[in-house]
């Protein structure tokens, strides 16, 4: 299978490397000239491409010559402004719609969901007006307008390996969100889910939440990941009641029957 990955970052690079090891022909883009050699060493055909939001770089047509295009470009809404990512996707759609690409996977985020103090499912956010991240919801609609088969994966907080929850709260005092349930997903499971979808085209043209089925509290996750890596435990304040959401992965389980490697964030694999 010919697979192109737009955005070889923390998720895209190991995804591309694993697919290449398994015998797929993989092309990967990066915005870093220095990273081209890294991709090449992993037997990924490297391309230096940017969406600023207009497409820049040489090789867009070559990238689009594929069976599956994985769009993995973080929105960075705070840094670039609320309309930047939508503009990126609009420009990308113009490149994709008449290209040889057969199928498109868009890596979205569970940040589309508002905190409704309950379990949330895919149908809770269909339109930007329903979303806590309207720009992201609008980008999803643009992907759905493509003539190609599409897949939208709303990923939870990406964790695993050096992304250790305790690292980000070590030594902090009076954290008020300790009782909020987490919506995390291990990077290996995102890669596993994508690979499973590649083999199951009958369940495409749908939106799926990609989140570990279990939702321990932030307090539990932070404290569990402190001692093994020597981080100073944070302290918590229970004075506030915080809004929350529990993102359901039941649709993924029902339609794909995916066996999670790490169903409980308390048991994620981490490495310093």
From TrEMBL:
<dbReference type="GO" id="GO:0004029">
    <property type="term" value="F:aldehyde dehydrogenase (NAD+) activity"/>
</dbReference>
<dbReference type="Pfam" id="PF13460">
    <property type="entry name" value="NAD_binding_10"/>
</dbReference>
<dbReference type="InterPro" id="IPR051783">
    <property type="entry name" value="NAD(P)-dependent_oxidoreduct"/>
</dbReference>
<dbReference type="InterPro" id="IPR036291">
    <property type="entry name" value="NAD(P)-bd_dom_sf"/>
</dbReference>
<dbReference type="GO" id="GO:0005737">
    <property type="term" value="C:cytoplasm"/>
</dbReference>
<dbReference type="InterPro" id="IPR016040">
    <property type="entry name" value="NAD(P)-bd_dom"/>
</dbReference>
<protein>
    <submittedName>
        <fullName>SDR family NAD(P)-dependent oxidoreductase</fullName>
    </submittedName>
</protein>
<feature type="domain" description="NAD(P)-binding">
    <location>
        <begin position="9"/>
        <end position="201"/>
    </location>
</feature>
């Amino acid at each position: 299978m010919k697979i192109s990955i737009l955005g070889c970052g923390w998720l895209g690079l190991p995804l591309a490397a694993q697919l290449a090891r398994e015998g797929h022909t993989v092309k990967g883009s990066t915005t870093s000239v220095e990273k081209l050699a890294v991709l090449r060493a992993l037997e990924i055909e490297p391309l230096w491409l940017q969406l600023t939001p207009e497409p820049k770089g040489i090789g867009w047509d070559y990238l689009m010559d594929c069976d599956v295009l994985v769009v993995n470009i973080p929105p960075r809404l705070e840094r670039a402004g609320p309309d930047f990512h939508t503009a990126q996707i609009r420009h990308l759609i113009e490149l994709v719609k008449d290209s040889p690409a057969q199928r498109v996977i868009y890596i979205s985020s569970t940040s589309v969901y508002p905190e409704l103090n309950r379990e949330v499912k895919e149908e809770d956010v269909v339109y930007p007006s329903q979303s806590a991240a309207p720009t992201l919801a609008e980008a999803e609609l643009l992907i759905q307008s493509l003539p190609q088969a599409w897949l939208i994966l709303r990923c939870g907080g990406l964790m695993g390996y050096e992304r250790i929850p305790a690292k980000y709260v070590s030594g902090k005092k009076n954290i008020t969100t300790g009782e909020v349930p987490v919506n995390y997903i291990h990077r290996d499971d995102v890669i596993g889910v994508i690979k499973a979808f590649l083999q199951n085209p009958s369940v495409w043209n749908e939106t799926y939440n990609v989140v570990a089925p279990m939702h321990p509290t932030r307090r539990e996750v932070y404290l569990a990941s402190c001692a093994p890596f020597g981080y100073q435990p944070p302290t918590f304040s229970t004075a506030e009641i915080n809004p929350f959401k529990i993102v359901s992965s039941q649709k993924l389980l029902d339609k794909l029957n995916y066996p999670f490697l790490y169903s409980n964030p308390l048991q994620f694999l981490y490495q310093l």
